[in-house]
Structure formats: C-alpha cells, structure tokens
Specification:
186 residues; mainly beta; 3-methyladenine DNA Glycosylase, Chain A; 3 helices; 8 strands; 10% helix; 30% strand
Length: 186
C-alpha cells in the first residue's frame, strides 16, 4: 500500500470539534518495525477539557494527563478498566487539554481482529501506553489523508458514548461517525 501525505502539526492546532469531524475518513497507520497496520477512521469523539466533565483533564493536570497539555499532534494513550488501551489525538493550543478519541476503524492493511471500539482498535493496531506522547507525524504512529478517489464519509453526529456521569456534558453531540460504515461501534 502506498503511503499518503501525513497530517502536519498545523492540522491539530485548530478547533477540536473541527478536527474530530475531519478525521473521519483519514487513515491511522502504525509501523512497529515489523508490521505496518492501518485503518480508515470511521468514528471519533471530541473532549474539551478541563471544563468538559467527560474529559480526563476535568480532574486537573496529572501525570496521566500531562501529554494532553503539550503540543498538538501527539498521542495520548491511556489504560482503562485494567484491560484496554485507548488512543486520543492531542489538539488545540499548548496548555489547553483538548483531545479527540479514535473510537473505530475500517481495517486497511495488516489488521486482524475487531476495530469497532477504542480498546479493540488499539488491540488490533498493537497500540499501547508505550506510544503515549509519540509525535503523530513521526515514523511509528501517524495520521494521513485518504488517497484521491477514496470513498467519502457519510457524516453523522451524536452524543458521546459511555460518559453519562458527566451530566449535561454527556449530551453534547461531539461523537462523529461515518454512518455508512459497518465498523462503527455499537
């Protein structure tokens, strides 16, 4: 598979909601030195901390969330439920802890296993906390534009999933998905 243009850091230094929407249809690539795995992004969620009570940064700056305060265009990988890794893209301005969770992928290359959910996505692409803080324009984990002629996403927008504890923040329509994809999480 030929590689397309990697997204530059300037792409990530913008509105988190715009980025969450525009990532639908783009490709996530992980090259672990042995295998290249990639998928087309079909579902994302935006988190606008620290005021957003669904964002990890709503509890303040911690060792876990430190990468979210750093420069945009880096990976925030965290571990949940003692079992799953999840990948977020740090967005916005330095010092403002915004991020976009990648929730689901359509497999393209080297991917085995399910990818319809953030934990399954990370498992299938062999993404874990060792990649926390990695530059997403580097040579290990990156995002790239879809090739010319790739199918266009049929965009839909809904409230985020699994954040009911966040009150009114849970109802914000900050989940974006390709409604034509069979790989969107349930």
């Amino acid at each position: 598979m030929s590689r397309a243009e990697k997204l530059p850091h300037a792409f990530f230094a913008r509105s988190t909601l715009a980025i969450a929407r525009e990532l639908i249809g783009m490709h996530l690539v992980h090259d672990d030195g042995r295998t290249v795995r990639s998928g087309r992004i079909v579902e994302t969620e935006a988190y606008l901390g620290p005021r957003d009570l669904a964002a990890h940064s709503s509890r303040g700056r911690t060792a876990r969330t430190e990468v979210m305060y750093g420069p945009p265009g880096h990976a925030y990988v965290y571990f949940i439920y003692g079992f799953w890794n999840c990948l977020n893209v740090v967005t916005g301005a330095v010092g403002v802890p915004h991020a976009v969770l990648l929730r689901a992928l359509e497999p393209l290359e080297g991917v085995t296993g399910r990818t319809c959910g953030p934990g399954l996505l990370c498992r299938a692409l062999h993404i874990d906390r060792r990649l926390n803080g990695v530059n997403l324009a580097g040579d290990v984990l990156w995002l790239e534009r879809a090739p010319a002629g790739a199918p266009r996403a049929r965009l839909a927008r809904t409230p985020r999933i699994g954040v009911d504890y966040a009150g009114e923040w849970a109802r914000r329509p900050w989940r974006f998905l390709d409604r034509a994809s069979a790989y969107v999480s349930a």
